[in-house]
Amino acid sequence: MEKRVKDIVFFGSTYEYNLFRQGISTPVGYSLRKVENSPLDEECDLLVTGHMLPEFDSKVITSSRITGKGPENILVIAHGSYPMEGAPYPEDPHSGSYHFQWISDTAMAKWLVQMVEDQQNAHYSYSELHKRIVLLVEDEISFASYIIPLIMEELETRTLSLLPEEQKNTGDKTYSERPILLVAANYEQAVKYLEKYSDRMVGVISSLGFPKDQKNNLDSGFDLIRKVKSLPFGIPVVILSSQENKRKPVMEIGGAFLHKHSPDLLKSLRKEMLDYFGFGDFIFRMPADSRSEVARARNLVELRNCLEWIPIESFTFHAEKRHFSNWLGVHGYLKEAEIIRPISPSEGEKARKELISLLEKL
Fold first, then answer.
1. What are the tens digits of pLDDT across the range 177-194?
2. Secondary-structure percent of the chain, ordered helix, strand, coil, rounded to 5
3. pTM, entire model
């Protein structure tokens, strides 16, 4: 069963508490209370600490959770200097602790709570709800604090874009339809997610340097790209890095490269998500050139029309990669996305007609 965060306990200054309370004021159903002492003893879905003290570092938090008591998840959002220990995502599966740095937009509180929900519901969202998945690999706390709220907001916005007007709201309906964001802080965590969920994964966003084999490695991203490209699903990989000299090698093995500190980073990342993750128009391409464009469909009607005439090679390419199913899935049509998943591209024109017939019923 899907677990939502409802009972939130906050430990920190009044200023930090007000920042967090303002940030989660929009979502319905959160119960927020502030405590002054012994936060690790609180029974709650989520403990948020507004500052990082030695007695609340990741090692202490992990030790407290082994007892099986206290909060289910711990979210540290430090104001000022970010935590010296810990990572955006729990490196130790027993810790359940996430570490971030406050940025100017208080809305990050809402997106980080939803990100925690995504992590704890990953398997249920995949196996029961059939949600689509975006994987972020990032171990740098300050950058994760900047990029995660932007990605989460983009996931929600794009999910709404094709849904009928009566379904366009920002409550539970939107949460239940949007893709989930899974966050990994090292190579091993990323591979674990890929091995479990890659057949419903629509894209990977990753730093180039992050820990691998328990050591910092400036080139781990290359191994990650190779791992993703070895899978049969054609998952796009976007590398975010300040190592400009690695742009060409990244692109040569099939990744996209965006400079981490570019003033146009968000604009460029959004374009990648729209054009290659399936969050925008459905772009028909040819197998020999995955960045070519044969046709473009903005909605379900245009998708059906394009399917009538596009080259069979283009149809087969997208069907083999499950792009049709994923495109419907990221736009909130989860049931319909599952209906068309079994269509076999090896049947050629018969499979094309079957897909057109199914789409006519939507």
1. 789 999 999 999 999 999
2. 45, 15, 40
3. 0.88
